[in-house]
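Record type: monomer structure entry
Structure origin: computed from sequence
Chain ID: A
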Amino acid sequence: MLPTSSGLFVDPEFPASVSSLICGAGTPLSILCDRITWLRPQEIIASPRLFPLNARDGLGKQGILGDCWFICACSALQKCEKLLRQVFPVGQCLWTDPGYTGKFTCRFWRFGFWVEVTIDDRLPCLGHKLCFSHCQDQGSFWLPLLEKAYAKLHGCYESLWAGQVADALVDLTGGLVERWAFGAGEEHVRREMFNKMLELKERCAMTCSVLHYREGAKELGEFHAFTITDIQNVVAKDGQELLMLRVHNPWGRCCWDGSWSKSGHGWDIFSPKVVSNLQSKMQEGEFWVEKSEFIQDFDELTMAFPVNEKGQILNIWSGLPLISTQEVYGSWVKGQSAGGSRNNVSFPDNPKFWLRVKEQCQVYLTLNQRPLHGTGATQNKDSLYAIGLHVWKVEKRKFNLTKTLSSPPVVGTSSHSYERQFHLYCELSPGYHLLVPSTFLRDTEADFLLRVLSTGHVTLSEIVPPRSMAPASEDVTQRSWDIQTLQGSWKKGKNAGGSRNFPSYHLNPSLPFSVPKECQLVKVTLLQQCQEDKCHAIGFHVYSVSRDKQKSPLSGEPSASCVPHSHSQEVSQVCVLSPGKYLLVPSTYLPEQECGFTVTIATKVDRKPIESQETLGRFLQEVCVITVMK
């Protein structure tokens, strides 16, 4: 006998009330709120179960909520038991279990983490029936429970009204998603796409969408998502082979009125046996369509990447497992690191990352932005920014940043897009690569997650800009500079004092220089005179000289620093310094390391340059910023 509703878990965070249904987005759902009741599964049907005995009976049907995009994405869980158990943790007490409490937990991948969402099993109903999503087998409740948890994650059910299938697939799998638009692309690309669908149909969730109204195909609706449940090469009477796709409409009714409707003339080219075989496998809401008509009447195809038994994501093109996953978080901050697209002179201000590839491998670079608020009906175009990503191969341990970013990237987005996440696919050779994520508009603030998934071993790390480094948007190409060059050396037993971590630091050479009143921008370069493969770790600090002659400048905190020390021939930094007198203290990281060095100090002066503006601009772009690999 099933437990009664008394004494069961009631979720105070997501109550059975109007606040869990709507959030003021103005959808038609608000009209029906007063008629909705909340029932537990055992109050709806005598013998509820979580999953159907036949997987095909678990196909999702859409209710009065416009979340076809989420329902179609849930088909990914039916393709992979490992994913299903990731989203629905095992060991939860069901309705026939003695320990049943009415509590269920689901997991969703959100911005790099699997987030647990706990709900009670009270579900919205109209007339004693589920009014939102349900399974083809109405005695199975995995889908409406998952939908409720997803609604709680987003604040209310109404937040799920309209959305992107790709976003839901990422939330349910934590993996990668491929999207193709049928309006673009060449025939060989489409052929490769359909071949891949045939190969992976048993392992991947595949969906298709209609994004605008079509005359002659109005029965498909507008802004609607469908699930592709099968794809087959079928031989016609004349021996011709046709690619046929079986499509499921989450409305749960047949909406297809084309040549491949149940009584359409398209079936005439097949033998009665073939027709019977194909049509007998259709469930409610399913229809068959031939490839050319499919391309004509649908706008987009979305496919989730398969996962192997170890839980590794597989490259859909090569089948190889993506064995390495690297992640790093970052932000675009106004006035600091929100440089905008490559159209802006401030593009070098954007966050920058090192990707070290240790062996030739296939690489997926994914960029995820954190939406400002909401999803679906509550997420408008202002919630997402147009984002992009570009990659440059760096051949040496030191390189000119401006010159590098002015050259064509190895791979990059063709245009910035208003997407929550996207990926770039490339094959990279061993070495170092510079990654620069960006928003299209400058000074756009947002958080992002950069992920690298690869078939070989790679490392990913952020290039942390020195705190006193001036943004590239300061437009140094419009300035004139005085350059001072000083030479010196660190000698063992005399002035090789090492870094500030050592008591002998004060022994290091101290080089005086001044910043005039008209100047605030100073560029300091330290070059050690050694072979590139025998470099010491070097850096420098800049100290302000006070009028108090009794006080050593080195006893205070530096005004600017170029640390951590770097194993490079040359380190360089643009600093913002107030007018006055300063000491520059170059050092190796460890004491007692001998080496000669050259210091170049460039200070901006208020005079017209002798060169033309164009010539000066080109010169300064080449030496403006030097980035050193850590």
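Annotation 1: Residues 367 and 450 are 5 Å apart (CA to CA).
Annotation 2: The first strand starts at residue 37 and ends at 39.
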